[in-house]
Amino acid sequence: MGFPSKINYNWAKGFPGGIASANPRRSAIPGPMGFIAGADGVRVGAFAWVQADGVTVLNTPPSTYYTVASVAVDAGGTGYAVGDTVTFTGGKATVETIATGGVVSALTIQTTSPETANPAGTGVATTTNGSGTGLTVTTTSTETASSAPTGFVLRDQTGLITTYLGESTMVLPSGFNVQLMTGGDYFAVSATAAATTGQAVYASTTDGTLQTGAAGTVPDGTVATGFVVTQGGAAGSTIIISGAVAPISGSNE
Q1: What does the DSSP 8-state code read for residue 113?
Q2: Do the beta carbons of residue 153 and residue 44 sit within 8 Å?
Q3: CB within 8 Å of 132: residues ≥ 6 apart
Q4: What residue ranges do the domains of the chain occupy?
Q5: What's the pLDDT tens digit per position in 37-59?
Q6: Global pTM?
């Protein structure tokens, strides 16, 4: 570490990303693979988003992506059988009903995958089993844009200092597990201005850092987080932010 440049008279109030009270806490629930820091790592004490794959976590929201919502037969082709699987841009479907000659009349969506380009429209469906040919389908899609962060990155493990001659780090390296908190009381830093108790907490969509301000007045380049300031402080100082611990309807908690 570098040569000390100051002496503290008292212990620090807390460290960004740390738990600030003995009150109940709540975290986002991951899938079987857990939440994993993405290619550039994840900054602790900031907000982060789970990406479209449901596993990767970054301090930036996922790009707008599209998911197939419905699939309909455009041209039924020939030679298909009930139960055949066909693929199309953004998903797979099962042949549900056919007419004479194996002409497809109805499909059921089997799986979908997020796409960065809108898959809605008409295109050729490729048979993955069976001998049918000539099927084309028309799909519709739903759009998912940037939204509130999944949670606040908890300071609950050791970060590796991988930078040559580095003295400290607040970044979890790529591939490390990440715990995202959706409720409870946590230490954080408001980087842009003094924070006042009761203000809303906003997250930068560039790096997940915090900004605070009046509720409903979202600063440019940020999104609301659902957290509020419960202990304020000067710009750059340690503050406490709090989020509700009750489950949020429609969330992954």
Answers
A1: -
A2: yes
A3: 77, 78, 79, 80, 81, 84, 86, 95, 102, 104
A4: 26-62+147-243, 65-144
A5: 999 899 999 999 999 889 999 99
A6: 0.67
